[in-house]
Amino acid sequence: MKKIICPNCSTIYEVEDDSVNLDTTCPNCKMTFPTFEGKKALERTYKSLSKKGFNYYTHLEFNKSNECYKEVLEINPDDFEILTRYILNLCYLNTFSKTNYDKIIPLFEEREITLDSKNTYLFLAFLKDFVQNVHVYFDKLNKLVIDDNSFINEIYVKSYLETLLSLKEDFIYFDNVYSLLKEDEKNVYLEDNPTFLERYNKYKVLVNESLTKTYNLISKGDFIFDIDNNDDNDNNKIEIKYLSTNNKNKEERLLEDERIITPSKEFKKEMRNLYIICSSLIVIGIILVIVGFAINNDIVKYIAFIPLIILIIYMIYFYKKISK
Length: 324
Description:
The chain is of the alpha+beta class. The radius of gyration is 25 Å and the shape is globular. The strands form four sheets. The protein has a three-stranded antiparallel β-sheet with strand order 7-8-9, covered by helices on one side. A two-stranded antiparallel sheet has the order 1-2. The chain has a two-stranded antiparallel ribbon with strand order 3-4. The chain is built from eleven helices and nine strands. The chain has helices at 35-58, 62-75, 80-92, 104-109, 117-145, 154-178, 183-192, 196-210, 265-294, 298-303, 305-322, and strands spanning 2-5, 12-15, 23-25, 32-34, 146-147, 150-151, 215-217, 221-230, 235-242.
């Protein structure tokens, strides 16, 4: 069976594999059309939604991006690249009172993904972005949720402990998948990203160490916690025990904005600058190439590479800036 889309009402449905040259009738609007037209329409929809999802992502509109990616995955549930983008968007949508790290493993396991050479690279690229996301989570947690070494509100305590448990499971799962990756492609990726494993292991260790520490809540003092496995519903139950020590007499408070990644006016301004600069440099480069060939001047042709070099340098600078 293969999927097609109705050109009239956009209903997606399945037809027999050998029906390419036959007509089909949409089960929703009852319109009859050639099957191959439905196949081409589905390919256009697939590409359009993927592009739109990426555009939303670049503007940090992660919910809108995932609305597009969800439709793409309905068309092809095993598109590994779109799946990793979808999962990363969920991580970017984390808040301090609820993170989505617990959704990662189920999303991977409900699909039949072949770990071929292409998917090996995509998986490692995903892991790199995942580790960066975890880095941002801990960094912002320590700046916004922890004040004077104390959590500012108990609601963030429970979320933090649940996040640690989810991250621990994620790293165990990733370790198992990592052992199944294609060796040649894995080695090439590690050569191109020599610090990847160091950062990955750093945060894996940090998560495990964080599960054995004593913490403090400003209104109740130091606390430790126990984790009980509930076999009935396969959930972890967290029991917090306050020690009546080091009580800091402050009022609990909530953050005005609990999002971890927040689009700012400065970021939007940077994105506008990026589009303007990139477009200008590309246009200048094209003009120089055309002029160089028109007057048959090699010097002008070589000068055309200067805008390209500037563009590459600016893209590297921009990426490093937004990754901080």
